[in-house]
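Bench notes, afternoon.
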Amino acid sequence: MIGGWTTVDAYRLIGQPYAGFSVMRNLLVGLGVERGGLEPFDYLRAMDGHLLHSARQIQAEVRRHPSGTTFHYLVNRRGRLVEADIRTKEEPARDFDRFLLEGLLPGLLFLGLGAAVLVLKPGAPGARVFLLYCLNWFVIAALYHDAVSTYRFYWLFLTAWAFSPALYLHLAQTFPERRAWAVRHPRVIWLAYALSAALAVLLQIPMRDHAPSEMLIIPITSAVYWVAALLVLIAALTITSLRGTSALGRQRARVLLAGFAVGQLAPVLGTALEAVTGMTVPYLSLLWKLNLIFPLAVAYAMVRYELFDMRAVVRLGSIYVVVTGVVIAAYVAAITLLNVVFTRLGMGTSPLATAVVLGLAVVLFLNPLYARAQRVVDRLFFRQRLDLQRSLERLAGTMTTVLDLDRIAGLIARTVAESFHPLRLTLAVLEEEQGRFRVVVGSAGPMGASGLIAAGSSLPRHLAAHRQPVTRVQHEADPDLAPCRDACLAQMRALGAELVMPMLFGDRVTGLLALGEKRSGAAYTTEDLRLLRVMVNQSAVAVENARAYSTLEEVNRRLADTLRRVEILEAIRVSLSKFVPRRVQELIEEAPEAPEFAKREMDVSVLFVDVAGYTSLSERHDADRVNVMIERYFGAFLDEILRNGGDVNETAGDGLMVIFQDEDHERHARNAVQTALAILRRADEINEAGAIDEPIRLHVGVNSGLAAVGATKIEGSAATRLTYTASGPVTNVAARLASLGAGDSAFIGPETARRITGWFDLEDLGDRELKNVEEPVRVFRLATSAPSLAA
């Protein structure tokens, strides 16, 4: 809209009288324009004896008189008053042509270039700064004619001129790649913008209220700042072209250096020289025609060196241009052909028939035509992309049928190497349990030992946090990556990587692909990153499936081994349970890794049972016969023991030692006595049944009290043996009580008798001397025929 308005204003001036020189609204004579004998930045004070306050007064007075009228001016020339007589002229048409070719056209080129980059590649580094720069130069180029003629956008022109140095410095900081000093000091650029903002405000102040020589300092300062900033930009581009981090970056810098040095340095330097010295620079208006070189240089860098990663856009544009051209040609040919056919047939031309036929043709042929044109353009100009697409399709098809991790890794590496031609390639997959990435293709270099990369190192942690591909240039330029910059760049150098892609599966990074520089020296474009991301993410699924399959195989193998071990252990447990006391089994089950076998003082009741005359019995019968007989009796005894909560602690030939425990001390005493009576009854039943040739008689003793219950360690040089038992006087007395007699009676110790008082009818035998017991022990007898008092 601004350009259109300015163009209309410039066109309306054709044929109108003007002062014979170009002057800005603040009464300063313009730079690089017609001056009618005046010098740059002369300040007009009076016209025909009338004091001037604005350039609009000059325009109004000139238009009141015919062209060719001479006016007398009083001029302040940098502190000196001079007089000048200047004849008015008629605005020629060639001035409008110059405005179009030297002002509006370059401005529109700048504006279109910046807008195209922002619209097509809004995420490209530096795109917004480049747009601001192009917009600024559009204002300077397109509105300079307005600034010295109609003054409609005078304030906007001065603002753009004031901000031009700051934008030069911003480009020097970030274009075509971010400089290291800019990464370290990202906020310094705001000082340049602050200075430009101050100059923009000061340039708007009317000069009539101040001394002209003092106010002239402001535009002179702006001009010096302008050319100094451009020199800084050219120096930065020169350094980048010589010492850039990549070959592609150096090539981009050289092209842009040519655009700025040839297209803008000479006109900017000439304009600043006029502003500072007041001298007239010859051919300055011709020098400003070089301004067209810069947008052409940027366009060349976009196409040739992928500036702003515009290759994909160029490809799409080429397809649309070809398709549009073919469609237009086909449309014109179809109309001509139909008209000829209808005329030959004597039918005349029918607009409706033509429209119907063409509509059907578009429906039938436009999409096939578009697809055909796309294939032709890809084959002619973008064969690499076409080949890459086919490679990705082949890779995706192959990986659906492969479950071997090493083979999948080889396919990925081969596809990447054939498609992108990196100097170095490393593919690593995550081993989560070990906390590391294992290199399956390539080498980890100094970064990892034996092909392993720690998952907790800086680069893998950065990839896991951001889940985005990272390039070395991006790490050097992006201030948001400063916390990881030094460590991550060191690891990328160790890998020889220019680009590292995370392999994403769900919300996890399951691998990484590191690529070195391309053999061609070109950078990885946004299109490359997009295709690589598609390939890596497809591969991540295949890699995860392969790892899951391998893991499943390993788990199945381990499970089979574990099941076999469990079967063996269960068989061992069942077998050992026949030899191990139940309490020992319970302690092991409670704490399998560290069972509590240490001896502890506990209240127990101990039952001793042995067969009377077992020695003579063994002498009269063979061993097998005796063993069958003992098993018959003891099997019956075991049922009674378990029924009453007893635990067989020891068996020794013809004897049993049974331990009873319970939180209620009287209860385990009753259980022991009930078990003793039950064993005596079961022995009588077996004897009466005549199941064996010779009946047996039993010795039975029961005693209760505190005993040391736990494991007794028997440790030798060859092995260690643990025996779980209850030891102490209680056990000794129970064994001696059992030896007092045989038959249908059980002999009870005094503590047991006290605890079962009221439950059984006991016979008090008084104190008895027992073998190996120092003090006499009061003994009680309980016969199987004694009545129970529990009821």
